[in-house]
Design brief:
The protein has 325 residues and is of the alpha/beta class. It folds into 2 domains: 7-254, Spore Coat Polysaccharide Biosynthesis Protein SpsA, Chain A, CATH 3.90.550; 258-321, no CATH class. Helices cover 31% and strands 21% of the residues. The protein has helices at 7-17, 29-32, 46-57, 96-105, 128-136, 147-153, 199-205, 216-226, 258-267, 272-283, 315-321; strands spanning 36-42, 65-69, 85-89, 111-114, 119-120, 141-145, 158-164, 167-171, 185-188, 190-191, 195-198, 244-251, 253-254, 288-291, 294-298. The protein has an 8-stranded mixed sheet, sandwiched between helices. A 5-stranded mixed sheet has the order 10-7-8-14-15. Strand 7 (158-164) and strand 8 (167-171) form a beta hairpin. The longest helix has 12 residues, at 46-57. The termini are far apart. Mean pLDDT is 75; it is low at 1-31, 177-181, 228-239 and 304-325.
């Protein structure tokens, strides 16, 4: 089996095999089935799940997919036409963390790819084989890019986590390539909510069931502090806790629409993200969250949400506050 010796080789092979009329199939697909499970959770947006699964099956026809919905039960059966797709209707509003932990219990593969329901696999950019290569070098979690979100926020959501004067601070660190490795990957502490992870590591960390939203920073802060990883002899860096990498050569498409955002977030997310982020700050005895130079939330502030969370800041804040506009 061909193993690319460089980032350029891997990308060239991927582009060739992604062409529908080339008659060439990805030679590594047959091995992915036994290694990776994809999981995603929705709140009533089963159309999004069907769209996500269709994009997965166009590239990886035999990878197991686990899906959960904690919205109002529906008779919509958009997810019944694919093999190796398991769908679970969960009790109403159990939350993102509890839903992911539930799905994790059903994972039988050594790796898990986690993403939200409004992402689509890209036939050029979403290369799980390259991500597995990164993990074999000794990393536990490998994040991918979301170009749509980078354009919106003005930066890639991947960086370091520090605690400074009682504040949880997330920001970019000096660029450091992984020695002797491929594809522009670098060590970080936190990546966006689209990543490939070792199943056993996720089971040790888990998501905090209390945090129905706003769980992201809490998850990666605990991962950094966990110290569950044994250093790999093939890696030139030693990091505390779970080892996280961000790879610029792998990406996924964020395909949310304005209508979906308004309908889902009005009913479920609009005022709650900040509330749960405050709960997380109290749990860690922190006073505020600062992300990429901007204060996102203070633990003890009482905001008047009114009719819009958008009044509080830039697009990077919309991400945390789940602004529906």
């Amino acid at each position: 089996m061909f193993v690319p010796n460089s980032c350029e080789d891997a990308i060239i092979v991927f582009r060739l095999t992604a062409q529908e009329n080339s008659g060439i199939r990805r030679i590594t697909i047959k091995d992915r089935r036994s290694k990776i499970t994809i999981l995603s959770k929705t709140f009533g947006r089963r159309g999004n799940l069907a769209r996500l699964v269709a994009s997965i099956r166009g590239m990886y026809p035999r990878i197991p997919v686990l899906l959960a919905d904690d919205g109002i039960p529906s008779n919509v059966t958009l997810l019944s036409n694919w093999d190796l797709v398991s769908f679970y209707q969960l009790p109403f509003d159990v939350g993102l963390s509890a839903a992911r932990n539930f799905l994790l219990q059903h994972v039988k593969t050594p790796f898990v790819f986690v993403c939200d329901d409004d992402f689509l696999f890209d036939p050029i950019g979403t290369d799980l084989s390259l991500m597995l290569d990164v993990q074999r070098s000794g990393f536990d979690i490998v994040g991918v890019r979301s170009p749509v979100d980078e354009d919106l926020w003005g930066f890639a959501f991947a960086g370091n986590i520090t605690v400074e004067n009682g504040s949880l601070v997330i920001g970019s660190r000096a660029e450091r390539r992984i020695a002797n490795f491929l594809c522009g990957c670098k060590p970080v502490d936190i990546v966006q909510n689209i990543f490939l992870a070792r199943s056993d590591i996720l089971r040790k960390i888990r998501w905090d069931d209390v945090l129905k939203l706003g769980e992201h920073e809490d998850f990666f802060l605990r991962a950094k502090r966990a110290g569950t990883h044994l250093p790999s002899p093939n890696c030139h860096l030693t990091l505390a806790g779970v080892r996280v990498a961000s790879c610029s050569s792998v990406w996924i498409t964020h395909a949310k629409t304005k209508v979906e955002a308004v309908e889902a977030m009005k009913q479920h997310n609009r005022r709650r993200a900040i509330t749960f982020m405050k709960i997380a700050l109290r749990k860690h005895r922190l006073t505020r969250l600062i992300s990429f130079g901007e204060e996102v939330v203070r633990r003890d502030d009482e905001y008047n949400f009114g009719s819009s969370l958008c009044a509080f800041g830039s697009p990077r804040f919309f991400f945390y506050a789940a602004c529906p506009y």
